[in-house]
Write a structure and sequence with these properties.
Elements (H helix, E strand, L loop, with lengths): L10 H24 L1 H5 L1 H4 L8 H17 L17 H15 L26 H12 L5 E4 L15 E5 L2 E12 L6 E7 L2 H5 L5 E7 L5 E7 L9 E11 L4 E2 L5 H37 L1 E2 L2 E2 L4 H29 L5 H25 L11 H10 L7 H13 L6
Parallel strand pairs: 1-4
Antiparallel strand pairs: 2-3, 3-7, 4-5, 5-8, 6-7, 9-10
Helix pairs in contact: 1-4, 1-5, 5-8, 5-9, 8-9, 8-10, 9-10, 10-11, 10-12
Bound molecules: flavin-adenine dinucleotide.
The site of flavin-adenine dinucleotide has 19 residues, from strand 1, strand 3 and helix 12.
Length: 412
């Protein structure tokens, strides 16, 4: 990592960062350069209905498979599933380096290692033996992927408001309902679908929600539409309709009525990922910002001579350094077997806010240049603004922090 850190990272994590940086340069950045026309032109990147074009899906798959081949893809996957189980600090350090190296232009970097919701992750320790036999080998090889269907049109932060229902039928269940915002769903082979299995328990917030592994080609599973996020003519999130989708007992993930345990299993990794994404992307932005300020001239001097330009950058650099320390500390706690609920909530809420602020300062430093597609700063702004909502909004994270502190967890 950098000399700004007072702690020494374990040798294997330093080696991992160097290795992953070389990997993304070789396998991700080179593909962006080679396929620039496809990846940077929304009319080529997406099909008419808003999905990634088949050539883009093929590139995503190629990167996942190259990463599996190079030994990075399954770094977070538990050893019991055949992964490297390197732990949260390694996951944080790897993602931070990936985003710092790739910036906003090389967006395929999000496939450089397995994302907890799309590929092999600790969540898969909860699937049945039969499901593991059917899906694990191809998913670990990067050939297939999955998505995480929790949110619904009427259930976001308050996931207990789910309406999707799994009704018992002939020894299995029939699932009906709707999902929305499900990332990676347009091309995923599987979806982990959350559905009510016991309405009474669900109403009383005593469980009653179960998770199921559903192949996305199951009869009744339909991508109704692609959600087009700001400025895009397509997207990676979709609205899904489930119409009497049949699932068997082998498709149950974890225990019946205890689906939220599965969601919580992945959510900390999602928070680690997003915190690292914010810090890595902001560092990429600050590198550009300081460089530009040192070169751009106005009124007979470089703009780095003006404190109005540099002090906001210094402020952001300080905040990003603090976020980086929060990330490392939270992950060290997780690796010690602690839940670190308060610390990780602080880390994610803080990192994504200071991350988006840093990119905003860098845009301002660039004047009109800051808004060009060429710079990619607006893409970075968008990517970091969105993660102020995804994987737990800032407000829900503050709510969690308050709950912990009111219960007496006052350690800071
Ligand atoms: C890019 C992106 C990708 C996503 N991918 C997935 C995915 O793959 N799978 C999936 O299941 N979901 C996904 N989501 C959905 C995401 O989990 C939800 O957006 C998130 O949980 C918030 O829910 P909501 O958008 O419905 O907002 P709401 O819950 O409706 O909240 C609206 C506002 O009210 C605030 N609020 C709500 N309750 C409280 C409270 N008690 N106290 C204070 N403020 C409160 C929120 O913080 C927010 O500001 C994704 C979202 C985005 C943006």
């Amino acid at each position: 990592m950098s000399s700004a850190l007072g702690i020494t990272l374990p040798e294997e994590i330093v080696a991992l960062q160097e290795g992953i940086e070389a990997f993304v340069k070789k396998e991700v950045i080179s593909r962006h350069e080679k396929h620039h026309a496809l990846l940077s032109d929304p009319r080529k990147k997406f099909t008419e209905d808003g999905r990634y074009a088949p050539e883009v899906v093929a590139l995503i798959r190629e990167i996942r498979m190259a990463s599996a081949e190079a030994g990075y893809f399954n770094m977070i996957t538990p050893e019991s599933l055949g992964g490297a189980e390197m732990g949260s600090l390694a996951y944080y350090a790897a993602w931070e380096r990936i985003f710092h190296t790739c910036g906003a232009h090389n967006w395929l970097c999000v496939y450089a290692i397995s994302h907890w919701a799309f590929g092999p992750s600790p969540v898969l320790t909860k699937v049945t033996d039969r499901a593991r036999d059917e899906i694990l080998e191809d998913m670990m090889a990067g050939k297939t992927s999955m998505c995480f269907g929790l949110s619904e049109p009427g259930a976001g932060s308050d996931a207990a408001m789910l309406k999707t229902r799994a009704k018992p039928e002939g020894g299995g269940w029939l699932i009906s309902g709707r999902k929305i915002w499900t990332t990676n769903s347009p091309q995923a082979e599987y979806c982990i679908v959350f559905a009510i299995t016991n309405p009474e328990k669900a109403t009383n917030k005593q469980g009653g929600i179960s998770a199921f592994l559903v192949p996305t080609n199951s009869p009744g599973f339909q991508i109704e539409s692609i959600v087009k996020m700001h400025g895009e003519i397509g997207g990676d999130e979709s609205a899904i309709v489930l119409d009497n989708v049949r699932v068997e007992p082998w498709q149950l993930v974890g225990e019946l009525d205890r689906g939220f345990d599965i969601a919580l299993y992945g959510v900390s990794l999602g928070r680690v990922y997003n915190s690292a994404r914010a810090v890595g992307t902001a560092r990429w932005g600050l590198d550009i910002g300081f460089d530009y300020a040192a070169k751009r001239e106005a009124f007979g001097k470089t703009i780095s001579e003006y404190q109005g330009v540099t002090f906001p950058l210094a402020e952001s650099a300080t905040e990003i350094h603090a976020a980086h320390l929060l990330g490392i500390n939270s992950c060290m706690l997780l690796d010690q077997g602690k839940l670190a609920i308060k610390e990780l909530s602080m880390c994610k809420a803080y990192s994504v806010q200071v991350g988006v602020r840093a990119i905003d300062q860098v845009i301002q430093t660039h004047g009109a240049m800051g808004f060009t597609n060429e710079m990619g700063l607006m893409d970075a702004y968008h990517a970091l603004r969105v993660i102020n909502v995804a994987d737990g909004t800032n407000e829900i994270l503050y709510k969690t922090i308050v709950q912990r502190m009111l219960k007496g967890d006052m350690d800071l």
